[in-house]
Amino acid sequence: MATVLQANPREDLRGSATRKIRKKGYVPAVIYGSKTESQPVSVEGVDLLKTIRDVGKNGLFSLDIEGKSKHQVMVHDIQVDPLKNEYLHIDFFEVDMQSEIVAEVSVRLEGEAPGEKEGGVVSHLLYDISVKCLPADIPEEIVVDVSNLAIGDSIQVADIRSSLKAEVVNEDEETIVTVQAPAAEVEPEGTEAEEGAEPEVINEKPDNEE
């Protein structure tokens, strides 16, 4: 059964009304889409958190507005209070299941690189990859295996493109992950050339000068 999140319409959009909504444990939101007129709503905060955990970052679910209308949506944007770590506002995007969309998918590294055991440093450079596909085909995440990477090796978008069903929007040359050589200690410039040289004496007076 598809995940359903209950929502209530919002009529009063003043700041005072929005604060009251948050105090009651609800999150102000808006639903919109290419064929959907923007509509302010609110959803229960705990139910919202459970829904996102259930379906994932790019998951689809049904938004039920007072039992009067249901919309197939995905979370498009989340505003979070950085101090309280609470949701401030949510954008729900109603999708057309028959039309392709572009979505950002998180990249997760898997495995242990041999180069790391040799002292190298695994550098994760690309954390999200853009894909274009039908809403139902959006992957929850893209897993990149690093278990064959030695020092100096890297994985680029071109290397994982054929393994995904969705069309990858990023350029082939973009590097997802690389194993960098350990930083070498660099001696101060000119150390060897000056080693053993006597220090220069500045403003030394002649022996006969008092």
Protein traits:
single chain, 210 residues, alpha+beta, Ribosomal Protein L25, Chain P, RNA Polymerase Alpha Subunit, Chain A, domain 2, 2 domains, 6-stranded mixed β-barrel, 4-stranded mixed beta sheet, 5 helices, 13 strands, elongated
What would your notes on this structure say?
With 210 residues, the chain is of the alpha+beta class. It has two domains: 91 residues, Beta Barrel (Ribosomal Protein L25, Chain P), CATH 2.40.240.10; 80 residues, RNA Polymerase Alpha Subunit, Chain A, domain 2 (Beta Complex), CATH 2.170.120.20. The chain is built from five helices and 13 strands. The strands form three sheets. It has a six-stranded mixed beta barrel with strand order 1-3-2-6-5-4. A four-stranded mixed beta sheet has the order 10-7-9-12, with no helix packed on it. Strands 8-13-11 form a three-stranded antiparallel beta sheet. A hairpin with a 4-residue loop joins β5 and β6. The chain starts with a strand and ends in a 16-residue tail after the last helix.
Task: Present the secondary structure layout.
Blueprint: E1 4-9, H1 15-23, E2 26-33, E3 36-44, H2 45-55, E4 61-65, E5 69-81, E6 86-94, E7 101-110, H3 114-117, E8 121-124, E9 128-133, E10 141-145, E11 154-156, H4 157-160, E12 167-168, E13 175-180, H5 191-194
Parallel strand pairs: 1-4, 2-6, 7-10
Antiparallel strand pairs: 1-3, 2-3, 4-5, 5-6, 7-9, 8-13, 9-12, 11-13
Q: What structural class results from the helix and strand content?
A: alpha+beta
- The side-by-side strand order for the widest beta sheet comes to 1-3-2-6-5-4
Strand content bin:
35-45%
CATH level-1 class of the largest domain: Mainly Beta
Q: Can you tell me the residue ranges where pLDDT is under 50 for at least 5 consecutive residues? A: none
CATH topology category name of the largest domain: Ribosomal Protein L25, Chain P
**CATH architecture annotation of the largest domain:** Beta Barrel
* Percent range of helical residues: 10-25%
Quaternary organisation: single chain
**Largest sheet: number of strands, sense, barrel closure:** 6 strands, mixed, barrel
Number of helical segments with 4 or more residues? 5
Which value, in Å, is the CA radius of gyration? 28 Å
Average pLDDT confidence is 87
Alpha-carbon distance between the termini? 101 Å
Domain unit count: 2
- Strand count: 13
Order of helices and strands: EHEEHEEEEHEEEEHEEH
- Shape field: elongated
Give the CATH H-level superfamily of the largest domain. Answer: Ribosomal Protein L25, Chain P
